[in-house]
Amino acid sequence: MSSKLRGAMAVLLGILSGMPWAIGAEDRPTITREQDVPPYRLPDPLVCWDGTVVKDRKTWQEKRRPELLKRFEEEVYGRTRLGRPAGMRFVVRDEKKGVFGGLGTQVRVGVLLEGREDGRKMELLMYLPAKGRLPVPVFLGLNFDGNYTTTVDPDLPVPGHYAMGLFHNALTDHRPEEASRGIHQHQWPYAYALEHGYGVVTAAYGEIEPDAPDRWKEGVRGLGPEPGPGDWGSIGAWAWGLSRAMDYLQTHPRVDARRVAVFGFSRLGKAALWAAAQDERLALVISQQSGAGGVALSQRLFGEDVEHLTTKLGHWFAPDFAKFAGKESEMTVDQHELVALLAPRPILILSGTTDHWSDPRGEYLGGRGADPVYRMLGSEGLSAREWPRPSEFVDSRVGYYLRPGGHDVTFEDWQVMVRFADRHLR
Ligand code: GCU
Question: Among candidates 142, 152, 144, 203, which has minimal Cα distance to 169?
């Protein structure tokens, strides 16, 4: 396909992905005006269940943080039922120097989760900068439709796993095909990251677990005990996959495993956040419009709410999350406390002005609500006291950027990501 045609496709996809995605959005109207947000009271992240007020790092680390983490397992994402598999193996498939006009090296690695090629596996696609001091910091994030959709490289194999398929509604099993090569490349500006001294590592989420309620057995949850009440959903599985990628990165001599920025867009942003909440090796977190079940506050009920999330996307969460549909005020945690679980690690929250479904203001408030925890830990929180205006970059340790536009990942987002990482990961 010509580069012109690809460019036109990327623009079209950008427009399409600015629309609320088909699932859920049209079923029932949601709150889209600020004046319709009901009054709510957020739980205080610094008050333990027994009433103890957290005033020091030790009490946070040993008492409050574990009890919050447990509550997120119980009420939202479910308990992760698998650790690092004993037999897991890594196989370097290929290494190609001089990609992107000499800016980087491409490395492909198979993560054999069951230790064998015919078992469950996840293929990592890595780009590492050719120049600069070793080891390098990297961005680590999952992609929706396969590594070969993130760039036009003709050598990347077309995989056989589940893919969501942008041309289809979510939850349809779209078979990867040659025609999709590079369709998401506008969201993956590898050369730009390489130029700035960062590596980028990705894998397809569908290799960890297909995004369909009745197909969990094919994914990594199928390796653990049958999920019962309180057990993990697909977000937990995808988050687990990010930790396995991290296991590999710790073994790679050119990667600085202490400087891994985990990121994710939309549902994959929810997964990145949940991964970092559980796995403290992930040094920096970037939420790209993670919305409800991500950094947006549940109790605001603006845009997507728990009923929407759990009606068609219930397989993403702990079964008990559905109990809070229409009863968000009965939840004992809200999403600002998910951000607090990352403290004092840096987190960047990216929103879009017209992405009402993800509640951009609620995403800011999710970060803002974690500020007291960051400050108690002696770190800078979110410095903006009011919701920042569009294009105003707040680069405090809890960072925020409201990009003009809709639900997408743009080059502008990457520029902000790199600036944030330059400040907090160097
Ligand atoms: C749907 C869903 C969101 C999710 C998004 C995505 O719109 O309702 O919660 O973030 O899909 O992953 O693109």
Answer: 144
Q: In total, how many domains does the chain have? A: 1
Ligand 1 atom 1 nearest Cα:
21
pLDDT digits (tens, 9 = 90+) for 238-273: 999 999 999 999 999 999 999 999 999 999 999 999
CA distance 168 to 166: 5
Protein residues with CB under 6 Å of any ligand 1 atom:
21, 23-24, 170, 266-267, 291-292, 304, 357
| Residue 164 maps to a domain | yes
Nearest CA to ligand 1 atom 7: 21
For the question of residue 396 being annotated catalytic, the response is: no
Q: Is 266 a catalytic residue?
A: yes
Atom number, ligand 1, closest to the C-alpha of residue 268 = 12
Å from CA of 373 to ligand 1 middle: 28
Sequential DSSP letters for 248-301: HHTT-TTEEEEEEEEEEETHHHHHHHHHHHH-TT--EEEEES--BTTTB-STT-
d(CA 177, CA 166): 12
Residue 24 has pLDDT above 50, yes or no: no
Q: Is residue 225 predicted with pLDDT exceeding 90?
A: no
Q: Backbone phi, then psi, for 171, in 5-degree steps?
A: 70, 10
Does a structural domain hold residue 47?
A: no
Q: Of all atoms in ligand 1, which is nearest to the CA of residue 290?
A: 10
Nearest to residue 201, comparing CAs of 259, 161, 266? 259
Choosing from 17, 234, 243, 266, the catalytic residue is 266
Q: Residue 285 and residue 246: Cα distance in Å, rounded?
A: 13
CATH of the domain at 351: 3.40.50.1820
* DSSP 8-class letter at 74: I
Q: How far is the CA of 268 from the centre of ligand 1 (A)?
A: 9
Asked whether residue 49 is domain-assigned, the answer is: no
Residue 224 is assigned to a structural domain of this protein: yes
